[in-house]
């Protein structure tokens, strides 16, 4: 029986750090065992025809891939157990709609999106690109929220937001105050997104775990960051308040050991009791 009829929606989001590589390191086995109804992938870095069949169009899933025009970069995908009523690639941006950074799908009562926000790099054009993206994307988020409310729908934007919002979202926050991903202006922008009087969205996992360090979702491959849990919480479920209030469980599917990782990110899963 379709899980939607049971009024439970389980959504997982993960940056796969190259889907072809992840497929060889354990993603296929993970996909076969997941209970998720919706799966949001980021940094796929492949055209659909480059993916093995069991990843490109696995049995039991409806899949939309949104690769970047620049080959081998970015790319987002959405996997849903139920066929979406509507799919949209991009958010109406002349600059970014071909960059493989956003795809959304309408399911019963909720619009779910996969986001890969630019990572940025201080003092480079990449940071300027990130700032431009954030400006356009906040406007989209507000418009999406308003349109959804008018239709009686909720919104859920999952993905790699590439911003650690608060000190609790980053182990080494003191050393990273001038690093992209923890810049004051980036954190202020995410505060706007999450301000009830502005963006109007909720950081679902943080709402479920308000007094927790982390739970971290990304660890550098350098050094012993994973073993020491020296990570960043940058992979988020960001939703409208109505849906956030129905979240009953949220957790990071952290690999048992460094060797068992198939990405430098871990899947972030939330169960919504609709």
TrEMBL record:
It holds the Pfam family Exo_endo_phos. GO terms for biological process: DNA repair. CDD domains: Nape_like_AP-endo. Mg(2+) binds at residues 15, 43, 160, 162, 264-265. Residues 13-265 form the Endonuclease/exonuclease/phosphatase domain. GO terms for molecular function: double-stranded DNA 3'-5' DNA exonuclease activity; metal ion binding. The record marks 265 as: Interaction with DNA substrate. Gene3D superfamilies: Endonuclease/exonuclease/phosphatase (3.60.10.10). Probably binds two magnesium or manganese ions per subunit. Keywords: Hydrolase, Magnesium, Manganese, Metal-binding. The record marks 162 as: Transition state stabilizer. Its cofactor is Mg(2+); Mn(2+). It comes from the Bacteria. The active site is at residues 116, 160, 265. The record marks 235 as: Important for catalytic activity. InterPro entries: AP_endonuc_1, Endo/exonu/phosph_ase_sf, Endo/exonuclease/phosphatase, ExoIII-like. Belongs to the DNA repair enzymes AP/ExoA family. This is Exodeoxyribonuclease III. It comes from Streptomyces actuosus. The lineage of its organism: Bacteria, Bacillati, Actinomycetota, Actinomycetes, Kitasatosporales. The gene is xth.
